[in-house]
Design a protein that fits this description.
Length: 449
């Protein structure tokens, strides 16, 4: 919404009055944080996100500097977003923090973090030996360009939107990659997990351990970030998925390089890559809505099972997954993706959150979610290792167990682990679904303003 010059003047006067009131009431150093936005539009979703990022950066850097916030207040109007921080610190120490943010943060040039002494005097950056603010367009001194009106409002607006979009896209891709990597690390750390690598043992696997998984997860961080960027730069959801395929293959190579040739996360590269691509396609506020995220995953992979398995016969089938599809109609992770990962949405995530609500730890909740999904979903890795009937029998046993013990004890899980290891069973496909479950939980907990 556009605002008038009169509205801006009134907002400026109101802000000055509020500054005087707060300084008088608290007698502390103040930071008054606003956004430097050219043109008649002073607030919208993009500007609010930039402001929220600045507020977060300021809080974090003040905490690092050991500067306590004794009072905080903010105002959000069409005329812009304003934050008032009252701080128990010397003005120059605070100014050092704010100037570093303004000069170094990706959106810093759009931040106005004025530092006021308790008597109302504004601290100048030259008191720290720093130069004045630079112009957005030409890099010259901002005051000179502003006085001479060297650049048009349209130029300034275009530059402003570019700075905001680039910085927030970078933040979003980094946040998603961080949470995706965290989800992989939480999955392998959940202990004890029947037949799977965890902190206690290597389950039914002889070629990998807990540290192999950590190396693999770390290697995949750049891939997850790239998936978000691909989602953000493609319009059609199926085109997003198509463009994820080559990066997925390259990520598989990075995984094998990090693990010395061991396949730790091939399934996660596929499923978590799709989820990260879906995040890139959505507004940040939608990330906390599992239904919206998984619906986008389904849209991206629509028709995947048919396209990958069309004209497939027992004579032409090469992979275990292809043969299971022909023999039993099991669609595996492709079917899960195309349906929006129903095992995660309807089983894994509710079980995880129910366990947490019951006071269980994130470790215990993850183990419970794993068993619940394994009890209700055909795991192709289980079938490949033990055969269809044995995998089916294991799922039936788990369903009966969960009816008696909704959140299995460590002793129960350890007994299952021993049984799975003896039978050489490993629910690797369900472990990938547990990573997605953790990821969606993290996304719900993460602030997405």
């Amino acid at each position: 919404m556009e605002v008038t010059l009169l509205e801006m003047l009134e907002a400026r006067e109101r802000r000055a009055n509020r500054q005087r009131e707060l300084l008088s009431a608290h007698g502390k150093t103040m930071v008054c944080f606003t956004m430097n936005i050219a043109g008649p539009v002073k607030n919208n979703a993009l500007i609010r996100r930039g402001y929220t990022l600045g507020r977060k950066l300021l809080r974090e850097q003040l905490a690092i500097a050991g500067i306590p916030v004794v009072y905080f207040e903010e105002i959000r109007e069409n005329t812009g977003n304003e934050a008032f921080f009252l701080l128990d610190a010397e003005p120059l120490a605070v100014k050092s923090v704010t100037t570093e943010i303004e000069d170094c943060a990706p959106v810093g040039r759009l931040f106005d973090m004025d530092v006021l002494c308790p008597d109302g005097r504004k601290v100048d950056r030259q008191e720290l030996g720093r130069e004045g603010r630079k112009c957005l367009i030409c890099g010259g001194m901002a005051q000179g360009c502003a006085r001479s009106r060297a650049h048009s409002v349209a130029e300034l607006q275009q530059k402003t939107w570019g700075i905001l979009c680039d910085a927030l896209d970078t933040v979003d891709s980094a946040d998603a990659a961080r949470l995706a990597t965290q989800a992989l690390l939480y999955e392998v750390a959940a202990t004890p997990k029947p037949g799977l690598v965890d902190r206690e043992n290597s389950g039914s696997h002889k070629d990998m351990d807990f540290f192999t998984f950590q190396a693999s997860a770390a290697a995949l961080y750049p891939y997850f970030s790239q998936c978000v960027k691909i989602g953000r730069t493609t319009e059609d959801p199926r085109e997003t998925f198509r463009r994820l395929r080559l990066p997925g293959k390259l990520a598989e190579g990075e995984m094998l390089h990090a693990t010395g040739g061991v396949n730790t996360h091939k399934g996660a590269i596929f499923s978590m890559g799709i989820l990260c691509g879906a995040l890139g396609r959505l507004e940040r506020q939608q990330w906390s809505d599992p239904k919206a995220v998984l619906a986008e995953c389904a849209a991206m992979t629509k028709g995947l099972v048919n396209s990958d398995y069309v004209n497939l016969t027992l004579e032409t089938a090469k992979t275990a997954g292809q043969k299971l599809y022909l023999q039993y109609g099991i669609t595996g992770v492709r079917g899960q993706a195309e349906a929006g990962f129903p095992a995660v949405f309807h089983v894994g995530l509710p079980k995880l959150e129910a366990a947490l609500a019951a006071g269980k730890s994130i470790n215990e909740a993850g183990c419970a979610a794993l068993l619940a999904m394994l009890a209700s979903t055909a795991d192709t890795n289980m079938i490949h290792r033990g055969g269809y009937e044995l995998a089916k029998e294991a799922s039936q046993k788990l369903r009966a167990l969960l009816e008696k013990e909704p959140f299995p004890s460590p002793e129960t899980l350890e007994a299952l682990d021993a049984e799975f290891i003896k039978k050489n069973l490993s629910p690797g496909g369900t472990a990938d679904l547990l990573s997605l479950t953790y990821m969606l939980h993290f996304l719900k907990e993460e602030p997405h303003e």
